[in-house]
Design a protein that fits this description.
Elements: E1 15-19, H1 26-36, E2 41-43, E3 46-48, E4 62-64, H2 67-75, E5 79-85, E6 88-93, H3 94-102, E7 106-110, H4 113-122, E8 127-132, H5 136-146, H6 151-165, E9 173-176, H7 182-197
Parallel strand pairs: 1-7, 1-8, 2-7, 3-4, 8-9
Antiparallel strand pairs: 3-6, 5-6
Helix pairs in contact: 1-7, 5-6
Amino acid sequence: MVTDSLYRKENHPKLIIISGPSGVGKDTIARNLIDTDPKRFYFVVTATTRPPRAGEVHGEDYFFFSNDEFAEMIENNELLEYAVVYNDYKGIPKQQIRDALESGRDVIMRVDVQGAATIRKLLPNAISVFLTTETEEELVRRLVERKSETAEGLKLRIAAARQEMKRIKEFDYWVINAEAQQERAVREILSIIEAAHCRVRQKPIQL
């Protein structure tokens, strides 16, 4: 006899890590994912000690903190992970993730490759997606066109991106964010999330 419990599918909110080298469009793809259904998805805002770039808004793009403020968060164990990235601190405040998961929303987190490795160890149930461009030449072109670095800083970013590409096999999925095809990348990640919600065995994210 089939019991009613078989028809009550266990389902838990997911945490999706969007990562990859600088210049692949992590912020844009993450934001576009949120825009597909703002009530379903929550975008994790990263804390950083670097100064805001033109057009960036505190609390939306990043939480911009002083070194002293960031140190206090570390002391109070308020960060899921943190690291020094290009001479500035970056980290993920925990409470926003807890609140989003408890509300039943899927959580979208965009982090650098170094941060993604730490989070995968802390939260093995998270879904990790490596985002990249079609070619290395395209990645270099995007970094150059951002014009947000000195010549020395740009050289460092390009060298770091080449090393980060070697870590692609550490991730669950690989999605190409091709030029002028962002919608396709978003659709592919949405399909990954839908598949995760259809797994027979699911475990909750626990911070």
